[in-house]
């Protein structure tokens, strides 16, 4: 009886993994301009995204995206700071203030 239960669980695992692998492969091909062998990094990224959605739903995906966007937000803040600094020290701006 235990053997039947184990092969039943293996069957369900194969039914989930095969389409997921195919889907990540197709998405990787589409992202890399229809390359027949997309890079493993692209395929792994799509696989991780699918796992995040499967385990945590959209809330998990939102959290992952916010963590990934944190370095970019720091760059945006530094860009805004340097923009205001450059505008304050611009000779034309100083000339128009007088």
The radius of gyration computed from the alpha-carbon positions, rounded to a whole number of angstroms, is 25 Å
Number of helices: 3
What overall geometry do the principal axes of the alpha carbons give? elongated
Distance between the termini: 92 Å
* Number of distinct beta strands: 0
Structural class of the helix and strand makeup?
A: mainly alpha
Q: What portion of residues is helical?
A: over 70%
- Low-pLDDT residue spans: 1-5
Query: What's the average pLDDT?
Result: 76
How much strand content do the residues show? under 5%
Main sheet record: none
Order of helices and strands: HHH
Chain-wise SSE layout:
Elements: H1 2-31, H2 40-88, H3 91-97
Protein name: Glycine betaine transporter
Organism: Planococcus antarcticus DSM 14505
Keywords: Cell membrane, Membrane, Transmembrane, Transmembrane helix, Transport
Describe the structure in your own words.
The chain is mostly helical. It has helices at 2-31, 40-88, 91-97. It has three helices and no strands. The model is unreliable at 1-5 (pLDDT under 50). The N and C termini lie far apart (92 Å). InterPro entries: BCCT_transptr (IPR000060). Belongs to the BCCT transporter (TC 2.A.15) family. One of its GO terms (cellular component) is plasma membrane. Keywords: Cell membrane, Membrane, Transmembrane, Transmembrane helix, Transport. It is a multi-pass membrane protein.
What is this entry, summarized?
By secondary structure, the protein is mainly alpha-helical. The chain has helices spanning 2-31, 40-88, 91-97.
